[in-house]
Amino acid sequence: MNHLPPLITDLALILGAAAVMTLLFRKLKQPAVLGYILAGILVSPNFKFTPSILEVHNVQEWAEIGVIFLLFSLGLEFSFKKLVQVGGSASISALTQAIGMAVLGYAAAKLMGWSQMDAIFLGAMLSISSTTIIIKAIDELGLKKKKFATLVFGILIVEDIIAIALLVLLSTFATTQSFLSAETGMSILKLAFFLVLWFVGGIFFIPTLLKMARNLLTDELLLIVSLAMCLMMVFLASEAGFSPALGAFIMGSLLAETTKAEKIEHLISPVKDLFGAIFFVSVGMLIDFSIVSQHLGPILLITAVCLVGKVLTTGVGAFVSGNTLKVSLQTGMSQAPIGEFSFIIAALGNTLGVTAPFLYPVIVAVSGITTFATPYMVQWSTPLFFKLERQLPEKLKESMTRYSAQAQTISAASDWQLVVRTFVTNIIVFSVLLIAILYLSDTMFLPFVNRNLEARMGAVSAAGLTLVLMSPFLWGLTVRNEQTEAFARIFSQQRYKGPIWIMRGLKLALALFFILYVLNRYFDTVVAAISAMVLMGLFIAFRGRIQALYDRLETRFIANLNDRELQQQLEDLKEAESHRNVALAPWDAHLTTFEIPPETALAGKTLEELRWREHIGINVAMIRRGQMTIVVPQRDERIFPCDKLYVICTDAQEKKLNAVLRPDKKIAAAYREIEMELDKFTIELESRLLGKTIRESGLRSATNGLVVGIERNGVRLLNPESAMVFEQGDVVWIVGEKKLLDAVT
Predict the structure, then answer these.
(1) The dihedral of CA 226, 227, 228, 231: what is its sign?
(2) Alpha-carbon distance 166 to 125, whole Å?
(3) Inter-axis angle of helices 219-239 and 182-212, to 10 degrees?
(4) Are 225 and 143 in contact (CB under 8 A)?
(5) Does the pLDDT of residue 721 top 90, yes or no?
(6) pLDDT, averaged across the chain
(7) Domains of the chain
């Protein structure tokens, strides 16, 4: 008789129990997560009344894979652009909740006499709400279109980032026993460094690779490639000293910026559901009812702190950031459940051996109660608001309404603030990229050339290759933030001259530091200094080529970053066209470019005034203005002569826009070649101009010109006033149309 491996038997038991419990909880209209946890309790060795699994450690390894795919899936729903778009209200609310609940959780643990480490980990677990459970509850209640739901989704996005940071901080704290240690500071800097590097590198390479292989990517191959990328980033994160969950989340967020994001999310869903179920079942397996019964009081206290604390902290944060009392209360009452990130933090404490054994089953029990309560709290939030509103004094309600309206007023950042912000961002991004190149040079280039070339030749080759790779980023570091509209506006103002030159000096000093570091790494100090001066000269001599290379890199990065958004605009346009009953057979919308003629009458008008989208049906995806690029321009963006427009349109719409941009026929008919000339003539005694002012002479209209100077008695007067009177012997210098000047002079 064949003997089945225990793992197969265990999986059969786990999935069978999960299936039965999920069906039961579906029938009861409860979240499936609770069913998985209950299934884990039933198959756990701690539960003696049902068959239990044989090899717990194997299931735990599968559960770790479940965490990886769960975080990968959350990353696919995240995207860095969403983080920018959620706005200040969601960020303030999320931070208020995270800090407030961390303090309340820590205080509750200390009140119960728990250790310092248990208290800190409990605070971290309570500070993060369950994204999966909250989204599912709001969706099932049909509230996704409500105003508070948008704020809730924004808060969950910010909390994902907070949770990732907590995983790094807690891992460091567990070994150093201090949040203020040098190791903690280095962990934060290290996390920031790798996040920037992975984001910039990932956005540049991953969408490009997917585009190159788009004709080969079947559903099966796309799934395999996505999982391979996920596990590769998990490996890189582990090698860098971070948790595997961080790597999975980062890769998911990078793929979320590609046009394949929805497809990948659809393909990965069954894999995520399978391993996610195993993860939540493994969570239930760790619940020991003997421990739970001993800590029933702490479970009830922590549950009360979680339910009440999240309503207060999130509600206050939402109200302070400018939301109404109703939206704030609804938002706070929807944040109750703790879930996947809390379990991961609890598992981290167990793995590191720094938390008590009872903490994991306690937090799982709290999660179960808060998850069960969430749909009811969301439903009760609106009736509770109306009841509260009736109890509040009229003056207090008026004050709260007035504060909410004032807090929503958005003050635009000044040009100087925008320039400083861009300056700091550029310094950080380009420094990270340059440091990464230096690291590659030290660990890969130099050892390779040393093995294959003579020492001096190897040093020259490694230094040269390193500097070539660094050149476009050194160029971007020194000139990038000076190619913006805000910089152009403040550059002409005298009071900003000093600060601008200070910023330029800092950028040049930093660029010179990187160059000297490379040269000093391979040569002695004198040779390095001389070589640095030569290289600065070469940078100036070849600045055009370096600028062109940098422009290509930046254009590729921006195109990749906005590719998904452009595709979404294309889909929106297609839907809008169908609503207007415009027959498109076949659908031929494409991205094309238009250049605004210098003589156009449209110059200076905003996109809202032009109303091209409403009248023609086109979408302006990007504007290239000299060295400046405006991606997805807003409705108040103005069109200027020589702008290059990147437009999504059909063939028919392209013809219409060409007709709109074509110069007026009257302008074309009136066009003639005009030759301008600088000439002079002398005011004689019989001249008709003698005794007249420049204005009275009519020279401006007679010559289409301008009197630019008068020489009188050997004295030259430049740009004379129009009231100046011509005298005999004056030599008049005039710029005008050559044919007309000949008649006058």
Answers:
(1) positive
(2) 10
(3) 160
(4) no
(5) no
(6) 79
(7) 6-386 (1.20.1530.20), 415-541 (no CATH), 563-669 (3.30.70.1450), 676-744 (3.30.70.1450)
